[in-house]
Amino acid sequence: MNETAQRIITSAEAMIREGGYYGFSFRQIADELSIKSASVHYHFPTKEALGSAVAENYTERFVQQLGDFSDQGAIQHYLGLFTASLKNDGRACLCGILAGEAGKIPESLRIALQEFSQKNVTWLQGAFAQLHPQWTAEECRKAAMIFFSSLEGAMVFAALNNRPEHLTEIGESLLQFLSKK
Amino acid sequence: MNETAQRIITSAEAMIREGGYYGFSFRQIADELSIKSASVHYHFPTKEALGSAVAENYTERFVQQLGDFSDQGAIQHYLGLFTASLKNDGRACLCGILAGEAGKIPESLRIALQEFSQKNVTWLQGAFAQLHPQWTAEECRKAAMIFFSSLEGAMVFAALNNRPEHLTEIGESLLQFLSKK
DNA sequence: GTCTATAATTTGATAGAC
DNA sequence: GTCTATCAAATTATAGAC
Q: How far apart are CA A177 and CA B70, in angstroms?
């Protein structure tokens, strides 16, 4: 992956998280990087290829940041990743943004998003198992699904209403509720 | 609102809930209704006008279905509306779908979505207050925000992974957790 | 109220020079 | 690897006949 390709991915990710898959074009990216759209096509032949690359790159970076789910305060750390992301650049998670368009985006992109969500749920399931050894695997899986999908929902809700603080509020409350199982 | 306008709104809502605001066009709607795109423009001069009309119509119908929040089992009824919607037509809530594109949709549409979310939270706050008289107004508001945004997240998560049953699962679990405050 | 016709722009994508 | 030039198709939108 050379430098230009990396800059294209960075620019595309920002645009997608701003307005979804149909909210960006090759020309907009080219303009932002002061290159031509043909050059973007050289690195990513189709929009589908670029979209998938963005999703895979996003997943890879996110998983790296996740670290080990058996660490102390793993779930608090997880929550921190979401709130920091929204506060820093004012944009919600790529997966939450694109999930709404799931019915019309290219299949390879939809699959990449499904993988992102599955990896998150699996990681969280492990973290909950570590935190609550008395819980069954099924209870951990359910808590993980709730926590992940609720945070995604809270992010887009917070972004829609321009209230990033709602994400923190909701995330903390969720953790309290979930620990009372 | 005449019949053609109503059919246009119905068609547009289905398409938006399938692929978002940029996932439908005047021509697609015209084709589906066997009319011409110019006729669609006669009823709704701009795409923004049509989008807003869809959101306002959706909110109106949803609020009607909500009924009185002081009824017995109001929150269970609320949850039923969401699960039925996803199971019947396989599509998530309009608000959850469009929230991801919030950064790039016309302002009037974004405002209509904000109003939808606010009305839901207000209704739920009343329902929680009725159900748990010992809770403070702030606790009810927080529970309402959590329940609404989590259900929206669960809907798009369930739709993304083609697992409508996840919405029921998550919704029921959430109610259990929320009642333990 | 619906149509034909068309304008103006944008889109994803390609050919070929350098 | 980036460019110019261009294509075919789709987009939102309008003018004017019926």
A: 24
Task: Report the sign of the C-alpha dihedral through residues A164, A165, A170, A176, in that order.
Answer: positive
Q: How many domains does chain B have?
A: 1
From the list A81, A177, A167, the residue with the least C-alpha distance to B145 is A167
Instruction: Tell whether B138 is covered by a domain.
Output: yes
- B27 within domain boundaries: no
**pTM of this prediction?**
0.97
**Domain containing B70: what range?**
51-178
Q: Which of A113, A120, A161 to mutate to test the interface with B (most CBs of B within 10 A)?
A: A161
Which chain A residues in 43-62 sit with Cβ < 7 A of strand D? 43
Residue B25, nucleotide of least CA–C1' distance: D11
| Cα A165 to the center of its chain, rounded Å | 18
The Cα–Cα gap between A130 and A74 comes to 9
Q: Which nucleotides of D are covered by protein (CB under 7 A)?
A: 1-5, 10-16
Question: What percent of chain B is helix, strand and coil (3-state, nearest 5)?
Answer: 75, 0, 25
Three-class HEC string of A47-91: HHHHHHHHHHHHHHHHHHHHCCCCCCCHHHHHHHHHHHHHHHHCC
pLDDT in 10s for each residue of chain A, 181 residues: 899 999 999 999 999 999 999 999 999 999 999 999 999 999 999 999 999 999 999 999 999 999 999 999 999 999 999 999 999 888 999 999 999 999 999 999 999 999 999 999 999 999 999 999 999 999 999 999 999 999 999 999 999 999 999 999 999 999 998 887 6
Supply B72's token pair: 């017995």
From the Cβ of B43, is strand D under 7 Å away? no
Residue A13 inside a domain? The answer is: no
A-to-B residue pairs, Cβ atoms closer than 8 angstroms:
168
